[in-house]
Amino acid sequence: MNKYILVVAFMIGAFSLNAQEVSVGDVFEIGRPDAPQYEHIDFPRPNFIIKRGGIANYKRVEGNKVVVTSVKEQKDGTLKVKIKRADGNRFFGSHWQVAANFKEAMESGELIKA
Length: 114
Description:
By secondary structure, the protein is α+β, with helices and mostly antiparallel strands. It is 25% helix and 26% strand.
């Protein structure tokens, strides 16, 4: 009987460790990517930015403060967040919000806790 209680307690502890570390309204800063392009923040390709009347300059994005607008956990366990700029402007002058893989973006330094 004690083994079952121990197993249940362990499972509850494991689920609580896997809880979301981010919630709606958290503020982050966009950092410099390790690679030449952002891999874990899903910025649109330059042709889509230009078609919508924006300027495709990814260097201007670095250092912007962003706010989390939604958090969803995918079936494969990844944590997808949608972010928008904290100052209310658009990314590249064309897109209000973009999606990001939260855990991977934090580990690579693309998102930094502000």
